[in-house]
Amino acid sequence: MVDQLKHLLETAQRSHVRLQILPFSKGAHAAMDGAFTLLETGNRDRMLYTERPGSGQVTSDADEVAKCDQRMSALIGLALSPEESIDQLAARIGET
């Protein structure tokens, strides 16, 4: 697992990557019912990919995309900052 954490630290240094950790200590949150990914195409069309046990689905329904965009904002607000996240990973693998 140390190698995986080191890889995350290296990846977090890239200019197009923003890594944030959402600690278990924050309790229940807006993504506990399943994973989702917000997607944006080159021409600014927005889509949503959701995963549930045994299936995945893509939708471009504006209401669904907006709901998950709000969920993502809430998650970002709960998560550690990118700097705090990097510090926590580094401490976890003993690189502080």
UniProtKB/TrEMBL annotation:
InterPro entries from the UniProt entry: DUF5753 (IPR043917)
Domain DUF5753: 1-89
One matching Pfam family: DUF5753
Listed name of the protein: DUF5753 domain-containing protein
UniProt source species: Nocardiopsis metallicus
Phylogenetic lineage: Bacteria, Bacillati, Actinomycetota, Actinomycetes, Streptosporangiales
